Structure formats: structure tokens, C-alpha cells
Amino acid sequence: MLGFSFDPDDPDYVLDLKDEYSATVNVFLHFTVLGVIALVSGRPFLFPSLGPSAYLIATGEQPRAEGPYHVIGGHAIAVAGGMIAYALFGNEVSAYVVFARPDPAFSMEVVYLWASGTVAMILTTTAMLVTKTNHAAACATTLIVALGLMGGLEDGVIIVVAVAILWYFHDKVISPLAHRYGFVPRDARAE
Fold first, then answer.
1. pTM
2. Residue 2 has pLDDT above 50, yes or no
3. For this UniProt entry, which residues form the secretion signal (predicted)?
């Protein structure tokens, strides 16, 4: 095993450089594919909640949270929860605009965003627990939508399609190559 100990008090802890390299290459490939799609389409196929999803998929850190049902289903539920909350409470405001103002304190627009974000999290949490999709990274998606950072049906579809591409590319291309060449990340929790 390539590596060295980071903790002199724990002689069994060794950083496996092959493992970290594997996860890093995985994430690089995920975002390269989605970046090229964003470049060619001019649409937001890159957004913040893809980061935690890509990490979970690339590291294999939570097997239950990396399957298509959890990843794609969780983000689909999050988009729906965010869109419902924003339609009910968002009042067509955006966190970008509101918090860029000189003094947004005590404004009704902050109240709208607060209500929208809170309701989106309630809807998403409840729906993920009921459906057992349980993909925590999707909670960032629901806030992205509920806070008016991305929204509307087209953006909602783009979010779900981007997540599906992320998972599909990993499962059908990256993971088989990693297995073939021996670069399969181990579950960090198994230590």
C-alpha cells in the first residue's frame, strides 16, 4: 500500500494514495463531463449540490446513498419540494438579488426566502424519508430552488438530468474502469 501515517499515535492509520487518487480522478471526470455539457448547451449543468453527490458517488462512502434510486430520486424530490415552496412563498425573489442590496435586514423579501427555504426543507425531508430516497446532498438542491437561485420547470429538469448523467456516467464508465484498473475507493467509514 502506498502511503504514510498522519497520526503518530495511531500506527494503523495509513493514507492510501491510490484510494485518494481514485476519488479525485472520479470527481474530475464527473465535472469534466458536466462542464462540457454546460459549455455546449449554455445551460446550468453545474450547480452546488452536485458536489456532495459527486463526492458520495466517487468515494463510495455511503453505498446506500450512491444508487440511482437515492441520488436521482432524492434530487427529483428536492426539486419538487423547492418548486412547491418557492411557488407558495418565494414571491419571485432571489437570494442573489436580496442579499446584494445594501441593507436587506428586516425586509419582507428575507421573510419570503426564509419561509420558502424552510417549507422546501420540510417537504424534501419528509418526502425523502417516506420514499426512503435519503440522499442528503439533495437538501442543497431544494434550497437552491427555494431561494430562487435556480428555478422554473426547465431548470428543474436540468437539475434532475445533470444528476442522472452524473450517476449514469459513474456507473457505466468510471466505475467499470476503476474496477478494471484497481482504483476502487474503499469505504472511509470501514476504517
1. 0.81
2. no
3. none
